[in-house]
Amino acid sequence: MLTRLFADAIQEAERVITTAPHVRNEQDLIEGYDYLAGSIRASVQMAWAYERDFPYFVRSTGPYTKMGLDNPDTLYFHAWLRDDAEYVITGERGSTVDLSFQILDGDYSPIQVPGSLAAFDDREIEIAADGSYRMILGPGLKGAGMLVVREVFSDWATERPGMIRIQRADRIGAAPPPPTLDALTKRYGVAGKILISRLRTFLAFAERFYLNLPVNTLTTPRSTPGGLTTQFSSAGHYDLDDDQAMIVTVPAGDAPYQGVQLGSMWYVSLDYVNHQTSLTRDQARIDPDGMIRYVISERNPGVANWLERTGHRRGYVQLRWQRLARELTAEDGPKVDVVAVDELPKLLPHWTPIGPQAWRERIAARQAAAATRMLG
User: Fold this and answer.
1) Do residue 237 and residue 335 come from a single domain?
2) Which of 55-69, 198-212, 224-238 has the least mean pLDDT?
3) CATH number at residue 284
4) Same domain, 186 and 318
5) 282 with 260, same domain?
6) pLDDT (tens digit per residue) in 125-148
7) Are 47 and 182 within one domain?
8) Residues 201 and 221 occupy one common structural domain
């Protein structure tokens, strides 16, 4: 049967979900099944988009195909490469705060976890007055397997994405051969392998890099592993009662992009469209002393910088700084305090509450901006 290997992989993937070590209640399991659905969809897309002679950019992750603690402020795209071919990348720069490129290695089945060969942002390419640009990649990028593009928003409401395309230079104007039964059979098999690898890899990654940290703490800012040389991050995980809040205090720094987000124990972002589970510096309220004070809690504390737990007692916290011109230090990083929600008016030095109508307007603005961005 053509789809047998893929069907078997889905059953195995369900076992990975149901036996995940963090599953403690029905909510964990329901979210796991939802994560599984998105992973199935993404795995099929990756297998069918595995085209290195006639490549095109596809969305790597999105609201229904989440993975790897996806950044709510980022559009992710990828295209497959051959290291002995030349590729022409053309595009138009949008108004987003950052546009970065990363070349991942692989001699390459798409089921392997790649390393980084190069990473750079649009400051290193020539952009014309009309926003257009053109790049040539290869040949000679030894081991190159994938080009990843990240377009990052700070102001969801006003910034607009650009346009990008990729073509193999010696295939422009030609066409790929029609699919064969053997090729489709292989793609279903590859999709199954991607699915299992995807689930196991990110569950293990989260346990290794987050859960070994002390709970309710955040690390000093550090260069992000994997070759994103212009990004620093601070990471941690929380475990809070419903009457507790975590105050995360961080300077509103000079990096063009600065953001914070929450994630579930499945290592994916929480609902960032209908709830305020993330904030960029442009979206956050900055106190008169130049500090941003985020409040992570289940109960509504009545402040603009509330990050909603949305019923998640446990989860991940990630702060990112991008397009940096300098290395960050501990002085640039967050300070964490766990307090009672009822004590917040006394403990926040610039207490500026907002009412229910103002909060509803904030959520409405997120929904409208996210809907616009998803069309990009």
Assistant:
1) yes
2) 224-238
3) 2.60.120.1600
4) no
5) yes
6) 999 999 999 999 989 888 899 999
7) yes
8) no
Q: Are residues 76 and 133 in the same domain?
A: yes
**Number of folded domains that form the chain:** 2
Question: Domain of 9?
Answer: 3-206
Residues 146 and 227 in one domain: no
pLDDT tens digits, residue range 73-109? 999 999 999 999 999 999 999 999 999 999 988 644 4
Are 199 and 39 contacting, i.e. CB atoms less than 8 angstroms apart?
yes
Residue 23 CB-density burial (10 A; 0-12 exposed, 13-18 middle, 19+ buried): middle
